């Protein structure tokens, strides 16, 4: 893990100057909605960034206000002046990271997570196996029932958010090619992620199946690695650049019609590799070419002629916008259009679906109290729809919403958009098999 004091990795004057302090961002900001504190609004945080840019010291209060931001970028959608707030807050965090000295245990933890675990399939396999044994042995149920974790601050709440392990893991699929069903209409590369290979292996498999059903030859490129999104959000931009270069080395955009991800948070960073590497002459042009081919899987599927051969999915569904799909990538209608194409599915729009659910990468771990407050508000709106199915487009949102169902819900199912499509396509196969039997 590398932390450098790079003057380019600070909020830049040209970006700060775009804010005219109109305040139209305030109601879009989850932390301002919860707290009503100006310094915990986008406008207030930009004001503080300006002060630091002009020479004010980085104080604990400044760090606290910047770290309490979910970086959901909802303010970008609300802003009439085109303020690139995501770019600003990520740069502010990078500047903080280059200046502050964390306690040794915090540095060791961050070094392990960001510098080793997320980048190592071997370590992720080991961690996934350990997590699976923890679940399978009954130890997880015992620990939760005992309440022992309550003695360690918010550890009990954080443990409830731990992703499940889903063996067999998806790592074995990396490097393989999956043929299209029927005539090949597209050749696509699929980025499998890092933790998703362990905790969302079934989602990754469903994504491949849905793409195959839609005439796609699906390549899982060998050599791909973590996208670097969590590193960027945590101020570790130089580490994110190293990961971006590794992915660019592994994937030649010219070989594919599209490069796809099913994780909206990853996709937002992947589509910004050109910004991350804008001063890297060796990779800048390659990053721009990569961005031109980069698509969220829902964005891609909604843009092609979708295979209509689906069985009914009898459910009432609502859709929670993933912040980094809606606000970061400006993708709103494609996921909704895909859901509306599924026979039998009744779609109900979710009030305030554009407000963050509180996941925000690892925010719900680091800022658990605020994340749970935001989730509480979200689930109140979900329950008003009376939908039995909550659909989203990002694994992190899925974990958060599943926690929300346990805490505040009514036994709703939480699925990714492609999992709903997969159910519809597999329903056709199941019906055909029953007829044959």
Describe this protein's structure.
- The protein is an alpha/beta fold and 437 residues long.
- It has 4 domains: 13-99, Orthogonal Bundle (Fumarate Reductase Iron-sulfur Protein, Chain B, domain 2), CATH 1.10.1060; 104-159, no CATH class; 170-303, 3-Layer(aba) Sandwich (Rossmann fold); 315-429, AF0625-like (Rossmann fold).
- The protein has helices at residues 13-16, 30-35, 42-53, 60-67, 74-78, 85-99, 104-115, 121-136, 139-146, 155-159, 196-199, 201-213, 229-233, 237-250, 264-270, 273-276, 284-293, 297-303, 323-326, 333-340, 363-366, 368-385, 395-408, 417-436; strands at 177-178, 186-190, 216-219, 258-261, 294-296, 315-319, 345-348, 389-392, 413-416.
- Strand 8, helix 23 (395-408) and strand 9 form a beta-alpha-beta unit.
- The protein is globular and about 75 Å long.
Quick overview of this protein structure:
This protein is an alpha/beta fold. The protein has helices at residues 13-16, 30-35, 42-53, 60-67, 74-78, 85-99, 104-115, 121-136, 139-146, 155-159, 196-199, 201-213, 229-233, 237-250, 264-270, 273-276, 284-293, 297-303, 323-326, 333-340, 363-366, 368-385, 395-408, 417-436; strands at residues 177-178, 186-190, 216-219, 258-261, 294-296, 315-319, 345-348, 389-392, 413-416. The mean pLDDT is 92.
